[in-house]
Backbone:
């Protein structure tokens, strides 16, 4: 029984310690780099005068649902779509890839 208690006690702090840095590491880049995902897209839409996801999707030539899924970080767009995203959102490839959390804030392309 002592071993089971030791194992449970030993595992519990390891899990807590493992989770804490992971959360901090995940949150820290988002704070330092600014907005990502849908938050970035909405801010960009406001800046460029788009009123709906439908408008942006039409400009890019894709389905509104796909655009939403890309920026809600559910799926990733194909590389072939990157130039159209850049054009419609008036952003560099690096900005788009960072907003989609494909590229880290400290990485360059």
Residues:
């Amino acid at each position: 029984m002592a071993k089971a208690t030791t194992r449970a006690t030993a595992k519990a702090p390891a899990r807590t310690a493992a989770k804490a840095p992971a959360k901090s590491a995940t949150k820290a880049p988002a704070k330092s780099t600014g907005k990502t995902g849908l938050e970035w897209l909405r801010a960009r839409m406001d800046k460029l005068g788009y009123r709906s996801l439908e408008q942006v999707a039409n400009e890019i030539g894709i389905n509104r649902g796909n655009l939403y899924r890309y920026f809600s970080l559910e799926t990733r767009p194909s590389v072939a779509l990157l130039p159209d995203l850049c054009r419609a959102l008036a952003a560099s490839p690096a900005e788009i890839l960072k907003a989609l959390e494909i590229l880290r804030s400290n990485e360059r392309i």
Summary: Residues 35-109 form a domain with the 434 Repressor (Amino-terminal Domain) fold (CATH 1.10.260.40). The radius of gyration is 20 Å. Helices lie at 2-33, 37-48, 53-60, 64-71, 82-89, 93-99. Confidence is low (pLDDT under 50) at residues 5-33.
